[in-house]
Amino acid sequence: MKREEIIKAVKAYHSAAFPAKAFNREKDTVRYAGRVFDENELAALVDSSLDFWLTEGRYSETFAEKLSDLLGIENVLLTNSGSSSNLLALSALTSKKLGKKRLVPGDEVITVAAGFPSTVTPILQNGLIPVFVDVELPTYNINIEALKKAVSPKTRAIFLAHTLGNPFNLDEVLKVVKEHDLWLIEDNCDALGSRYKGKYTGTFGHIATFSFYPAHHITTGEGGAVATNSEQLAQIIRSFRDWGRDCYCTGGENNTCGKRFSQQFGTLPLGYDHKYVYSEIGYNLKMTDMQAAIGSVQMDKLEAFGEKRRANFKRYQKIFSAWEKFFILTQPTPDADPSWFTYVLSVREDAPFTRNELVTFLNERRIETRNIFAGNILRQPAFVDKPCRVAGELTVTDFIMNNTFFLGTFPGMTEEMFSYVEDCVAEFLGRFAK
To answer: What would the 3-class secondary structure string for 90-135 be?
Structure first.
């Protein structure tokens, strides 16, 4: 059977296996996130499998190029997850190749406590000290005045996520970075396609990270990426990603440097094979070509996905604006155009119900909700008693831990789903409307 015949059959299979279905409010679930795909992703996945090239290959090159072209970033390295991307980004800054700019154990990295653990864990895993700063409402991003006060003589880097797709104030953060000569890592895992003053997030810092988990803006299942315009940082990141090896040949290639058997490294014999020289304490965190095949197709849909997410955010904003006396509604950061990961809102302190009462009601009616990840990460079991510094009070962070949740804005949302959510919200809140 020819490859073209197999692909044609796969597309026919997709139509039979994944038919479009109308939402049934009596039994279907309104998901907070989900994969959105068609026959083209499935065809690309099978096409890649037919090559049986199981590590990085032609689809990886295509996917990375599309992401690079979108962002205008020279170096994009694919990884097996957004969490691995965060680990690689932070670990790269500890490399001896950076000389006096390298991070060493005991150095401080400013971040926030209201976020996802994988922004914080690489700091601890590298022997660095996380410095936790409060966030602000209604953007859920870092409080800039608190950030300025948090800088100390030991501060060497800032590592922040664009919360749920809403860019943090990049102008002000970059002022702090430049004033104190700090590294900036943008955790862009929840914000692919978001813009700040017309420029994509993930293009402002020294390094940016991305996630392609099914809940995110595009998906490869498991998967992620690291992006940087620095050739030096790109080589270091690649080394950490690829077992720590010094060689930068791509899979299946040899002697790209032209000096494979003629260099001196450490106390190894002169001319030791460069493919087996290790300059970093690294990992194996690469993406497979079959994952990249899916991602290369998903990239073509990113703009449409982003517009749908923006429209879905506005639809939720319309629903909850009618009940604003009970909620703090999310607002985009000034000068930002978020590609919203979710719709986040907070129950006011004086509301006649709690966050838990509302989300319990919604989940009983098959409307999925999530909290803002760890809430206050310092209260999580794994982070109790870990070395850190808290800069000021985490008052808003604790408020978020107790009062905040989010609903889905993913492109699979339909008007029938929104209508159902609107009716359920009115059913719950109507009893308190007097």
So the answer is: HHHCCCHHHHHHCCCCCCEEEEECCCCHHHCHHHHHCCCEEEEECE
Whole-number average pLDDT of the chain: 96
* 3-state SS, one letter per residue, for 36-62: CCCHHHHHHHHHHHHHCCCCCCHHHHH
Non-local (6+) Cβ contacts of 396 within 8 A are 114, 134, 135, 136, 137, 143
* Bridge pairing between strands 129-133 and 389-390: parallel
β 195-196/327-329 pair status: unpaired
**CA–CA dist 318, 341 (Å, integer):** 17
Each residue's pLDDT tens digit, 141-156: 999 999 999 999 999 9
Catalytic option among 162, 206, 216, 274: 216
CATH fold of the domain at 43-299: Aspartate Aminotransferase; domain 2 (3.40.640)
Is 180 catalytic? The answer is no
Token representation of residue 305: 């996905």
Is the predicted pLDDT of residue 434 greater than 70, yes or no? no
| Least confident stretch, 22-36, 243-257, 272-286, 359-373 | 243-257
Q: Residues 237-264: what's their mean pLDDT?
A: 86
DSSP 3-state assignment of 193? coil
pTM confidence score: 0.95
CA-nearest of 327, 334, 349, 340 to 405 is: 327
For domain 301-430, give the CATH number.
3.90.1150.10
What residue ranges do the domains of the chain occupy? Answer: 43-299, 301-430
